[in-house]
Write a structure and sequence with these properties.
single chain, 465 residues, alpha+beta, two-stranded antiparallel sheet, 7 strands, 6% strand
């Protein structure tokens, strides 16, 4: 009796092993059809895969076949999967990353492949108890294979992405250094990078140079938005660099590079591009970064035609940063006139040349709200038309006439005489370049009292808000 019991037990185990071998053999025979089903299912369930071309799908099929063969080899030999079994995965992961497939879609494809394989196992198990037990015996090793393979595939994918990102950053940095040295890109990758950013050396493309410098956080500000510690500055600079890179308006991404302690960007305007519109976007970028406790001082060069003048524009953008106050802002040369620039660059000698009567009037006027200064600017902007100036100031012409008379009495200057008007405008610009506290050596940017009128005529920088 005992012998019969033993024989029955061995027969059952052998039956399960036989069923398992049969299932695996049938799967091996149908490997091509299984791979076709897997690829078809991936295309149906993963839009990113459906959007790819025939060569991509062929490559995916080859990978599915290799995985199924490796999986069957592990199951036939009843052993644990090793890295040698899935060595082909790394290069496939690199190809998926290079094709622009998202990591989530790539891992989802593993899930689909596993699902198709498992459903094929269940189908071939049939209705017998031995077939069911054989299928169950395959479940755990199949899960281990899928987890092992998908984990290493994901790691390979991320490694390649990090490498590609580092290569892109390095290429962008090298391209910028080439331009700053007055050269032109000669290597294939540099040429491709230049073209991708709209920087065609052989054409006269309107563009600017932007320099941004990270400033210390304002006292009492919450620092939770950006990392603290030694890497905080680097993290903030890279975040600002990425934000500036998105300020394109001509269909190409702006070349923006972290260079030592500064950010250098080369935005291209393109035909008919408006530099003031670009300055508005840069101002918006700066203000948005303030919400992340990232404070920038930004200098913007004049518009240049072509990459050959990038070194000169770079020096302009660096020099104009000195016009900004300690809390930063955007100092944009396209927003000011040569007249204002000269005033901002003036030294104390130029201020000493101003008639003391004018200096006294401007100081008193600033303390009282600047109505006389606004009147002078509006009168100049209206081409010496008193009625037009009064309309822009929203005052009665008699009031405007009274103000001109007061200015003449206090300064001895007649605003209807060009030389006298120029004297007053120069004095105003020199006065505006000083902070309210004249004992401070830090210059401030000019702010017209009446933005709506004088600001458009004489241009100005954006002050930080």
């Amino acid at each position: 009796m005992s012998g019969g019991f033993s024989t029955g037990t061995l027969t059952a185990a052998e039956a399960v092993r036989a069923e398992r071998a049969r299932i695996l053999s049938e799967l091996l025979d149908d490997l091509g059809d299984l791979a076709d089903t897997a690829v078809t299912t991936m295309r149906a369930e993963i839009p990113a895969y459906a959007a790819q071309d025939a060569s991509f799908h062929s490559d995916v099929r080859d990978q599915v076949v290799q995985h199924y063969r490796s999986k069957l080899a592990v199951l036939f030999e009843d052993r644990t999967v090793t890295l040698d079994d899935i060595a082909f995965t790394r290069r496939a992961a690199m190809r998926r990353a290079r094709a622009g497939v998202a990591l989530a879609d790539y891992i989802n494809a593993f899930r689909v492949g596993q699902q198709v394989f498992w459903e094929a196992v269940i189908e071939r198990a049939g209705r017998s108890f031995a077939g069911h037990d054989a299928a169950l015996s395959l479940a755990a090793p199949l899960m281990r294979y899928c987890d092992f393979a998908s984990t290493h595939a994901a790691n390979a994918y991320m490694e390649f992405q990090q490498y590609a990102a580092a290569e892109a950053v390095r290429e962008s940095r090298d391209l910028l250094e080439t331009f700053l040295a007055g050269g032109t890109p000669a290597r294939g990758r540099q040429i491709a990078a230049a073209q991708a950013h709209g920087l065609w050396p052989e054409t006269s493309t309107p563009m600017l140079v932007v320099i941004a410098v990270l400033l210390p956080q304002t006292p009492g500000a919450c620092a939770a938005a950006v990392p603290t510690g030694p890497d905080r500055g680097a993290d903030a600079r890279h975040a600002a660099c990425a934000a500036i890179a998105r300020t394109w308006g001509n269909g190409t991404r702006t070349l923006s590079v972290v260079r030592h302690s500064e950010i250098v960007a080369l935005p291209v305007l393109g035909p008919g591009g408006d530099p003031e519109e670009l300055c508005d976007r840069l101002q918006a970028v700066r203000e948005n970064l303030l919400s992340e406790e990232i404070v920038l001082a930004m200098g913007v060069s004049t518009v240049i035609d072509g990459t050959a003048r990038i070194p000169q524009a770079y020096q302009e953008a660096r020099a104009v940063l000195e016009f900004l106050p300690e809390e930063g802002g955007v100092a944009a040369l396209p927003r000011i006139t040569p007249f204002q620039y000269l005033a901002l660059r003036a030294d104390d000698t130029a201020r000493h040349l101003v008639d003391p009567r004018i200096t006294s009037l401007l100081a008193e006027d600033r303390a009282r709200g600047g109505v006389l200064t606004a009147t002078i600017r509006a009168f100049a902007a209206a081409d010496l038309n008193l009625r037009t100036a009064a309309e822009r100031l929203q005052i009665h012409p008699n009031t405007a006439q009274y103000r001109l008379r007061r200015i003449r009495e206090r300064t001895g200057r007649n605003l209807r005489r060009i030389n006298d008007l120029v004297d007053l405008l120069v004095a105003i610009s020199l006065h505006d370049s000083l902070p309210p506290d004249t004992n401070s050596g830090r210059r401030r940017l000019a702010t017209a009292t009446d933005d709506r009128h004088a600001g458009r005529a004489y241009g100005r920088f954006h002050e930080p808000r």
